[in-house]
Amino acid sequence: MSDSEQNKAAVRDCFAEASRGNFGALDSILSPDYVLHPEGVRGSEGLAEMVQGYREAIGGLTVTIDQQFTEGDYVATRFTIRGRHEGELMGTEPTGRDVEFAGLTVSRCRDGRIEEEWELVDTVSLLKQVGALPEVAQA
Questions:
Q1: 21 DSSP 8-state letter
Q2: Contact 107, 75 (CB under 8 A)
């Protein structure tokens, strides 16, 4: 397996294991000095804590990888998260609504493990779906 394919596999495994709540697998996927920007999440424990918050708020949480691209040690991943709003989410009480929102992550890997990531998630869309944002007036 090429380095690019090994890196893509590590990122796919990270999404799969974390979304399932199999946080014990993260130690073999992430480097010990892993960091996620802009949240400043550090290490496998930090990532597990962040993901668990989403798992508690979004029942049946699934992550679908829509596309992946590699360039050297970097993997860009476009993904979609789906589930049902069943727990408190960013100050919003559960609504029972189905939600779907997208994200992009750029992962820097070394020796088949993820060392650093930059992530952008469409939280505006998510918050709008659960009624946490006011409707925008139409002109």
A1: T
A2: yes
Estimate to the nearest angstrom the gap between the alpha carbon of 7 and the chain centroid.
16
First to last CA, the chain: 54
Residue whose C-alpha is closest to residue 65's, from 8, 12, 109? 12
Q: How far is the C-alpha of 61 from the C-alpha of 57, rounded, in Å?
A: 9
- pLDDT tens digits along 36-91: 999 899 999 999 999 999 999 999 999 999 999 999 999 999 999 999 999 999 99
Neighbours of 66 (CB within 10 A): 12
Is the pTM here over 0.85, yes or no?
yes
> In the chain, where do the E strands start and end?
30-37, 41-42, 58-71, 74-85, 98-110, 113-121
How many Å separate Cα 98 from the centre of its chain? 18
Write down the H helix ranges in 24-104.
26-29, 43-57
